[in-house]
Amino acid sequence: FVVFRLVDLHSDTNNNEHHTSEISVTELIVRRGQAFKLTLKLSQPFNLGFDQLIMTVVTGWYPSEDLGTKSRFGVPGRSLHSASAKAVWKAELQRGSSPETGVLVLIVSPPADAPIGEYTLSASFKDKEKVLANFSVLFNPWSSDDWVFLPKEEERREYVLNEQGIIYRGGGDYISPMFWDFGQFEQGMVKICLKMLDLNVKYWLNPADDVSARCSPIYVSRVVSAMINSSDEGGVVMGNWGNDYSGGFPPTYWSGSYAILKQWYNSYYRSVRYGQCWVFAGVMCSVMRLLGIPCRVVSNFQSAHDTNKNLTIDNYFDNNGAMERESKDSIWNFHVWVEGWMRRPDLAKDGKYDGWQVVDPTPQERSEGLFCCGPASVTAIRNGEVDLKYDVPFVFAEVNADSVYWLVSIESDGSRTKIFSDTETVGQNISTKAVGSYKRVDLTNTYKHREGGLTCMDSRGRSVYFFSGLRLFVMQVSGGSKVNQELTAEVVFTNPIDETLSDCSMSLSGSGLMIGLPNLRPNCRFRVAVVLVPYKTGERSLLVNFSCSSFKDIKSSCIVNIKP
Question: For the Transglutaminase-like domain, which residue ranges apply (predicted)?
Answer without folding.
Answer: 269-363
